[in-house]
Amino acid sequence: MSITILLQFIEFFLEKMLSDQSIDRRWLVRTYDENKVLLVSDLHLGFDVEWYRRGLWTKKPSWSLEIIQSLRNDVLKVNPSHLIICGDLEHHFRIRRKKEGENSHIIIPEEVQSSILHNFQTQILEIPDLDVILVQGENDVSLYQQLEDECQIVSSEGISFFDNQLGIFHGQLPPYKEIVFASEIIVGHLHPEIELKDDLQIRHKFPVFLQLQLPREDLFPLFQFPFELDEIGMVDMVSITILPTYNHFLSGYVMNIIGGGKKLHKPYPILRSILHHPNAQVKMTDGIDIGLLTDI
After folding, report:
1. CB 106 within 8 A of CB 51
2. Which residues in 95-132 are b (16+ Cβ under 10 Å) and which e?
3. Global pTM value
4. Contact 142/108 with Cβ under 8 angstroms?
């Protein structure tokens, strides 16, 4: 075998190996009786506008439409009965004014909003036999008002589904108390990531799922709920998962600091106890379990 052929073979093998490992599944699938549920969070449709205002790319929502197309592909691949978006379907942002020193709330331009809305309606809401449920996040203002007649809208404090097997809330506000009694709890809002450093001291960020198993009674102090007499002593376990942002153009909140330090996570008071919990596990979007967050 000539050197040229050998090099071509090695190049082909490496490309194949890398492509097989480049799975990026920023969603979860759960099954409850005959219901298959696809869970995603934090699409932030319209984020293109902020980047354009800061001098990047284009004011046209080309990247937002790509996110919608990606979601459609995942829905058709998974073929769920329900699609649950756990908050922040849309993206609003603030720019600090230097003179006043205040944050100015920027609304997505109407023509961009119309394009995003139309694509979401035709690409997602018109998929046959699909129930779409939208949990409201802190960024969700205008699109949800226009979609309330076409899908189920849930407040940020959340709701439980399927005989309380699944509890959903966004994460910037405490959940309704009924969420505590769900078999599994899914949260968004945080865009969890980890940062790792290679041998060349180059830092790499990876979106992750943050997962936690803990006794149900621990949820009361975790979410700052008072105990009730008949609820003390619950020792069954509950699973909590914080989803990464579905939008692969966006960065997230780094869970770890290289060298064993910890962030204070001041902007996320509701989720702070979860982030510092010694049982918090990290799972990559390609399915690889990293282990305990405290060990990273």
Report:
1. no
2. eeeeeeeeeeeeebeeebbebbbebbeebbeeeeebeb
3. 0.83
4. yes
Report how far residue 243's alpha carbon sits from residue 189's, in angstroms, rounded to the nearest whole number.
Answer: 8
SS3 152: strand
- Break the chain into its structural domains and give their ranges: 25-295
Instruction: Look at strands 203-215 and 237-242 and give their pairing.
Output: antiparallel
Amino acid identity at 222: L
Please give the Cα distance from 40 to 24 (Å, whole number). 13
CA distance 189 to 137: 7
**Which residue spans within the chain are E strands per DSSP?**
28-32, 35-40, 82-85, 93-96, 103-106, 131-135, 152-154, 159-161, 166-169, 184-187, 192-197, 203-215, 237-242, 253-254, 281-284, 289-292
Contact 290, 194 (CB under 8 A): yes
Gap between the Cα atoms of 148 and 153, Å rounded: 6
Adjacent-strand bridge partners of 209? 283
Do 192 and 245 form a contact (C-beta atoms < 8 A)? no
CATH number of 25-295: 3.60.21
Write the CA distances from 229 to 106, 215, 217, 225, 233, integer angstroms. Answer: 47, 17, 12, 13, 9
Which one, of 140, 172, 195, 202, lies nearest residue 268 by Cα?
Answer: 172
Q: Tell me which DSSP letter residue 287 carries.
A: S
Give 77-101 pLDDT, tens digit per residue: 999 999 999 999 988 765 555 555 5
Structure tokens given for 131: 């129930």
CA 222 to CA 69: how far, in whole Å? Answer: 37
Task: At 22, list the tokens.
Answer: 């480049």
Give the pLDDT confidence of 185-228 residue by residue, as tens digits: 999 998 999 888 777 778 888 899 999 998 887 887 777 766 56
- Residue 148 tokens read as 């309330």
Residue listed under structure tokens 């379990």? 289
